[in-house]
Amino acid sequence: MKDSVSLADLLGRTNRTAVTVATGIVFLATLLGSFAIGLVGLVETAHVQARVLAENAIPAIHFGDKRAAYELLGSLRHWPQVYAARLMGPDRRILATYIRNRPAGRGTAPAAGDDSSYELFPGALNIRQDIDNGDGWFGNITLTIGLGELYRQTAWIGIVTLVAALAGFAVSRLLLNRFKPSVLGPLQGLNRLMAKAYGQSDFPARARESHIVEIDALGRGFNEMIGKIQDRDRQLARLAYSDMLTGLPNRSAFMDRLEREVQRASRSGHRLGLLFLDLDGFKRVNDTLGHDVGDRLLVEAAARIREALRPSDATGLAAGAANDNGAARLGGDEFTVLAPDLREIDDVMIIARRIGDVLRQPFLIAGHGLAISGSIGAAVFPDHARDAPELPRHADAAMYQSKRSGRDNSRLFGASVADPAKATPPASSKLHAAIS
Q1: Distance between CA 252 and CA 136 in Å, rounded?
Q2: Which of 42, 144, 237, 416 has the fewest Cβ atoms surrounding its Cβ within 10 A?
Q3: How does DSSP classify residue 249?
């Protein structure tokens, strides 16, 4: 596995590499370009000078006047770049020469018969100009031009270019450090959000918009991903805490909520009421009309229980539970209702009677008029129970006392209900397995 590197380091390396390569290219291009331009200019100037000398040398060659020839070449002392010069006559003999009082580098005058117009040597440039007197070739003049001055000019241009390149490198570093937060900031923030979402399950976090298109696209993708995760979690919570048939909280949600509400009531000193409800006559409907009708009856009964509860009767649900209205379905035809913050013990019976009244009204399902009722038992914390496990057991006992008293009524847990000889619930009670 390759070593990991931070984006800041990667940007720094990329910037250094790009600036170095660009500086090198500009430096070489400037250096070679300035040398080439200077060389072309020097060659053109030398050719012009050679042509002028060639025209002026015709009389000296015609009369064989060496003195005039030497004077003509001596005028080159005003052009410091000329190291040497040679004037040749039509018989290919040297008529006159000129040598400046300093070395001409490794450049040498061309040998007789050399017909090249110019030659480039490391230290000098040889330029030859033929002389034509109108009747044909009449001789030539050769100039040896030193390149030292051109080298020095090119070197100075290279130094200036290098200094400018280093200054540009420094400025690029400053600009990178100046603009790095605007690029790295959103990415680092997005990385922190992802770590927070992964490590702490903090899904409400959202990425902010960015002025950088690519980073903004990453942020939108992150937000969409978090939204899908939240949707999935809500769906899982509904499956885990909701009864799939009625939509009410299920047994797990009820037990979690009961524990919390008992703790809250203990801290606040308020009363917490619990109703246990069993539908009278449901088994007969289920057996005679089928499970489909029975399921629809349960749905309608759950809806009526919900409607019978005022907002003040509801309690808080466990995290992720849906349909927070205080009611829950334990299973089959058994329901529970939590009633927090009761002022008096008997207030729980007001809720019980209101639920009994709505259940007593006929149901019309699949063309059948169905009449059922509810047997309801109630217990209040802390008057009838010392903790969360004891409260549902006593409410369950009160419900079975209600059934034994003729059904379609409600009973509050009391001394007679607690007497095992009178009201002990049968062993088949659906709640005992969850509490014991």
Answers
A1: 120
A2: 416
A3: B
Q: Are residues 400 and 257 in the same domain?
A: yes
The reply to whether 191 falls in a domain is no
Task: Please identify, among 120, 152, 184, the residue that sits at the C-terminal boundary of a domain.
Answer: 152
Give per-residue pLDDT as tens, 35-82: 999 999 999 999 999 999 999 999 998 888 999 999 999 898 888 888
Q: Domain containing 127 — which CATH number?
A: 3.30.450.20
Single-letter amino acid, residue 38:
G
pLDDT in tens, 11-47: 777 877 887 888 888 888 988 999 999 999 999 999 9
Mark residue 263 as left, alpha or beta (left: phi above 0; alpha: psi -120 to 50; beta: remaining). alpha
Last residue of a domain, one of 103, 123, 152: 152
Domain that holds residue 320: 242-435
- The DSSP bridge pattern shows strands 118-120 and 124-132 to be antiparallel
State the Rg of the chain over Cα.
53
Residue 380 forms part of a structural domain: yes
